[in-house]
Design goal:
By secondary structure, this protein is of the alpha+beta class. It is built from 17 helices and seven strands. Strands 2-3-7-5-4 form a five-stranded mixed β-barrel. The chain binds flavin-adenine dinucleotide. The site of flavin-adenine dinucleotide has 20 residues, from β1, β3 and α13.
Length: about 450
């Protein structure tokens, strides 16, 4: 198969897509030229792709997110598939999985059932963390949760919220009134909730990114009130693998568009794919596409097997996949030349959309900070034993397990030392380059030590 027929995520996934119902039907629908036309029209008009979303609901997309049936493998496969076609569609769908993770981690069966019923009825979920004044520093969250009549009421304003205008289930981080403790709350849109004007974003232009104002909105705590930041930490440990899969879809979509263009565009009597410079851009984009997909699939299967203990792999995926997908899109941009900069030819949306993945769910700096912390642990020596191979092999051979189960696992963090991993890979592949990489890692860890 060539890159324009199937994505790298799909090729590297150890399970055939046919076993991940309803993804094959969703893939067929997204591959249809009419769907592509409607997604492009939604972007051109900056209006959410409601008709495509309605088609996908008809196909059964809600089962991918419904806490009763969701698995990390299904969620991330859909992320990759949707992002291959449209950033706006991908994040409009993807936010459901992100928002419902706290319910998988700490929600009650009643809360999960309610969320499933809303999704199956055509509704959607949003995750409300960001406040304009406080940005990445969630410990400054100003939205309040007041205990009233045995429940809670939310007051405050959130911004840059994906689904802020329409989504029904509002999973919200709020400060417990007059304390330094925070809770995650499940609220539902009612007449105490005001949707604030949409923001005009550079990426994902058709997505509904807006503000939300709460004025005494009834809400239930997810887990113990006061544990909000802990549940959020566990949520991000899982969701960041999903962002890697969004980035993987973006890289595959860009590569497919660039390959198609290079095979068709003829300015000298034969397609430009025969020009050495163009072929080089394509080879680099193809290599990046595989690297991004490998990292995203690895995080996905480790999360499926280990839950939050896969946080390190998820953080690597979030950082590396976003960074390398941007490079892949840039290689494709060089293939399309001026047409990559003209909206009507379609590639411009890919150039804009890929920029989003490195920013939400923790910016690149915050992820680097986490990875730096891990490097210090490697240098402290405790992680040098073992290469993690048996755990990884078992994760790859596992079947998708309910996210509700994976999210509640509390296992020892999986973070094998990179030098030991490289040594195992070198022994298995007999590639001198991999052995050299192992030596470099050892030197790096020694230097940090
Ligand atoms: C299209 C879009 C959709 C979004 N969807 C949602 C959503 O659904 N829900 C939601 O809650 N939010 C959402 N966001 C908000 C997004 O998550 C925040 O923009 C992001 O968390 C960063 O906050 P900030 O932009 O205010 O940056 P700031 O916190 O103001 O950061 C500014 C700069 O400082 C850096 N920085 C911050 N902290 C550190 C640190 N500790 N160390 C080093 N550098 C640091 C950042 O990397 C950044 O470069 C969305 C944003 C966009 C653009």
């Amino acid at each position: 198969m060539t890159p324009d027929e199937t994505s790298a995520w799909q090729r590297l996934c150890p399970l055939p897509m046919a076993q991940l119902d309803p993804l094959p039907a969703i893939a067929r629908h997204l591959d249809h030229p009419d769907t592509a036309r409607r997604l492009a029209a939604a972007d051109a008009g900056r209006t959410p792709p409601d008709d495509v979303l309605a088609d996908l609901r008809e196909i059964g997309v809600a089962a991918v997110y419904d806490p009763a049936s969701a698995t990390a493998v299904h969620v991330n496969a859909l992320n990759a598939q949707a992002a291959r076609h449209s950033g706006s569609l991908a994040i409009t769908l993807g936010v459901n999985a992100l928002a419902l993770l706290p319910l998988c981690i700490a929600g009650t069966p009643q809360q999960r059932d309610r969320a499933g019923a809303v999704l199956r009825g055509g509704g959607a979920a949003a995750m409300l963390l960001t406040e304009l004044e406080h940005g990445s520093n969630l410990a400054r969250t100003g939205t309040r949760a007041d205990a009233v009549d045995g429940g809670y009421r939310l007051t405050g304003e959130k911004h840059l919220i994906n689904g802020g205008t329409w989504h029904d289930l509002l999973i919200t981080l709020a400060r417990l009134a007059d304390t330094d403790r925070f809770g995650l709350f499940l609220a539902e849109r009612d007449d105490t909730v005001t949707a604030l004007p949409r923001w005009r974003t550079l990426p994902a232009v058709a997505a509904d990114i807006s503000g939300v104002r709460f004025a005494g909105t009834p809400a239930q705590p997810i887990g113990t009130p006061g544990d909000g930041l802990t549940i959020l930490q566990l949520t991000l440990a899982l969701s960041r693998g999903g962002i890697g899969s969004l980035a993987s879809g973006a890289a595959s979509g860009a590569l497919a568009a660039a390959v198609r263009y290079a095979r068709e565009r003829d300015v000298y009597g034969e397609p430009i794919v025969h020009l050495g410079a163009i072929a080089e851009h394509l080879v680099r984009a193809a290599a990046l596409d595989v690297l991004v997909a490998a990292t995203a699939v690895k995080a996905t299967f480790l999360i499926n097997a280990l839950g939050p203990a896969a946080a390190y792999a998820a953080a690597v995926a979030k950082y590396a996949c976003c960074e390398l997908a941007e490079q892949a899109v840039t290689e494709g941009r060089a293939v399309l030349g001026s047409r990559a900069l003209v909206e009507e030819f379609g590639y411009a949306a890919r150039v804009r959309d890929v920029l989003l993945y490195g920013v939400f769910d923790g910016t690149r700096h915050i992820l680097l900070d986490q990875l730096q912390w891990r490097l210090e642990r490697f240098a402290a020596g405790s992680d040098r034993s073992g290469d993690g191979y048996p755990v990884l092999a078992e994760a790859y051979s596992g079947t998708p397990q309910p996210l509700v189960r994976a999210a509640r696992l509390r296992l020892r963090p999986y973070a094998p030392g990179p030098a030991a991993r490289a040594a195992t890979l070198a022994a298995r592949t007999c590639r001198p380059g991999v052995a050299a990489l192992g030596v470099l890692f050892t030197r790096l860890v020694d230097l940090v030590g």
